[in-house]
Amino acid sequence: MAPRASTTSKKSPQVSPPLGPVGPKAVKDLHERMVRIRLFETEAGKLMEAGKLPGFLHLYVGQEAVAAGVMAALRDDDQITSTHRGHGHAVAKGVGFREMYAELYGRVTGACLGRGGSMHINDLKRGMLGANGIVGAGVPIAVGAAFAARYKGEDSVAVTFFGDGATNIGAWHEGANMAAILGLPVVFVCENNGYAEFTPQSGHMLLTDVADRAAAYGMPSVVVDGMDAVAVHQAATEAVERARRGEGPMMIEAKTYRFFDHQGVKGLRHPYRSDEEVAEWKTRDPIDLIETRALADGTATRAELDDVWQRTRDEIADAIAYAEASPPPDPADLLLNVYSG
Amino acid sequence: MTTTTEAQAVATRKLTYVKAFNEGLAQAMREDENVFVAGEDVAGYGGVFRMFDNLLDEFGPRRMIDTPISEAALVGLGVGAAARGLRPVVDLMFMDFIGVCLDQIVNQAAKMKYMFGGGLSVPLTITTASGAGLGAAAQHSQSLEAWLAHVPGLKVVMPSDAYTAKGLTVSAIRDDNPVVVMLNKVLLGSSGEVPEEIYGIPLGRAHTARQGSDVTVIALGRMVGEALAAAQELAAEGVEIEVIDPRTVQPLDTETMFASVRRTNRVLVVHEAVTFGGLGAEIAAQIQDAVFDYLDAPVLRIGAPFSPVPFSPVLEKAYVPDRARIAQGCRRLLERS
């Protein structure tokens, strides 16, 4: 698909494009990344409901195709900045279940030694520059990571994930313009799940496509079906390769949906979306979509797909046991890492 | 890395405060290829205060980057680049502009190492110009060190003369933490002895600018010079005041202050920022907590009134503490016992 730079284009999200360069191996990879996210999240939700986890939990379930599709286009040395709904990005980037669950539990073995929690998981070895508790704040940081790559003569790229609501934040606009004017290798990925917390898109911006905002900074953009991992992956591959070639930033808007609430797993005080709407989106579950497709075209057998689920379940059971057996941080180390040196 | 220490550095000529800063920055850039400068009009124009003069000629556009007027993205650029191993120097021109990018300073730069479980450092230097005295009014004249010193993870330095402008800047750049360098606008053109070689002044160590036996004056930034002037006035009256320049307000070297209080038994804290909630309150509280038994009078604070910085020169002069108010404060302290 050709990048667009027009504010007038209102093209519909693309649905199930031909596999093209995305072969069977890539489809299996996308499937596995999504299953890993789904099971990590649903199990985390159960732990939260059981009262085992402190703090907040913003579940990613429903949006798996975005993280999987983008991360499958990246190398380990490519950097990402994430959002407060960051588990899916971390899992897809390859962060281990053990340190992630241990962090949710606030244990010293966690990804942040129990200092960050759900909203701040990072893994520098995997290029995961952190989930972020401040909406939009990761955008300029990704610009800085991309700047560093170019400064050092490396060809890694930076991807910044954000929601539709974050594009109303000043840091988003400043970061987009900064990336564009400096021509930096940054891919802007909008996970448009239709809601900024509890406010629908129509209540916080007058645009239909958030991607239109990219045009204001001279940045090409594309709108994709965020429930279709293959579509996301193809768009991401193009944007990443474009950035790697030194052709500057690009924006991808993936239209997606979160199956759980903004935060937590329980019911809401005030319904902000209808059961019908949720049910409608669930008919387009991104994992169902890729499994149907893989089975239909012979990419995988049911047994192979089931094996992915089972292996992941086993790995998660191990990780939760590890987290629960891990000690909490020592209060004597409260001031650890406030400063370097 | 050059290991010249403060003690080894020998002053051989006079330099202005802004040129001392510029020289320290240039030497730090020569010392470490990972140091770069980004900011508004820092490269082509050399900075509105000429802080970055001639650096584009030597270091080129790769290391001297003019950015849009986008303070949040500018600091964020620094945070991301620092997390990836560079040593960014980002310039905020006027300190008042930090409101635009406080999230990136407070929630990102300051907390990243801690919240990441220590796996990285953020060796970011933020340079900015603070203080009143140029008739720049309330949005271009503030001293906001207390805002920043309150945030765990940040360091804040306030050079009081040309010598410290160079040495603290070099140390800020070499430091692995986010450091805010608050240059003082009125001091930019002032001259002092500055060694030619590169040297760092240790962060978190106070300097006794003048020794005295009767009153300890702890003065921040530009107030150090005012306190030294007040000391001359008081010496004529037979009063010897000791002037302590913390140099770094976060971390704060309280031990040097406590030792001085044990000798003089009287303390005046003076800063340009408003008195309410200022660092004077913190310093006074720490002194009464640690060395109360040595005090012959309550700790006295002098700062600005609780008002925005006024524009009119007459009002601005009345707003900023000066040598006369410091001298008067010392006399009051001596009258208390």
Short description:
The complex is a heterodimer of chains A (341) and B (337). Chain A has helices at 24-49, 64-71, 87-93, 97-104, 138-151, 170-182, 212-215, 229-244, 275-282, 286-296, 302-325, and strands at 79-81, 158-163, 186-192, 195-196, 199-200, 221-225, 250-255. Chain A is an alpha/beta fold and 341 residues long.
Describe what you observe in this structure.
The complex is a heterodimer of chains A (341) and B (337). By secondary structure, chain A is an alpha/beta fold. Chain A has helices at residues 24-49, 64-71, 87-93, 97-104, 138-151, 170-182, 212-215, 229-244, 275-282, 286-296, 302-325; strands at 79-81, 158-163, 186-192, 195-196, 199-200, 221-225, 250-255. Chain A has a five-stranded parallel sheet with strand order 1-2-3-7-6, with helices on both faces. A two-stranded antiparallel ribbon of chain A has the order 4-5. In chain A, helix 8 links the parallel strand 6 and strand 7 (250-255). In chain A, helix 1 (24-49) crosses helix 11, helix 4 (97-104) packs across helix 11 (302-325) and helix 5 (138-151) runs parallel beside helix 6. Chain A is globular, with a radius of gyration of 19 Å. Chain A starts with 23 loop residues before the first helix and ends in a 16-residue tail after the last helix. By secondary structure, chain B is of the alpha/beta class. Chain B is built from twelve helices and 14 strands. A seven-stranded mixed sheet of chain B has the order 3-2-4-5-7-6-12, sandwiched between helices. Chain B has a five-stranded mixed sheet with strand order 9-11-10-13-14, sandwiched between helices. In chain B, strands 1-8 form a two-stranded antiparallel ribbon. Chain B starts with 10 loop residues before the first strand and ends with a helix. The chains are: A alpha/beta (341), B alpha/beta (337). At the A-B interface, helix 5 and helix 6 of A face helix 3, helix 4 and helix 5 of B.
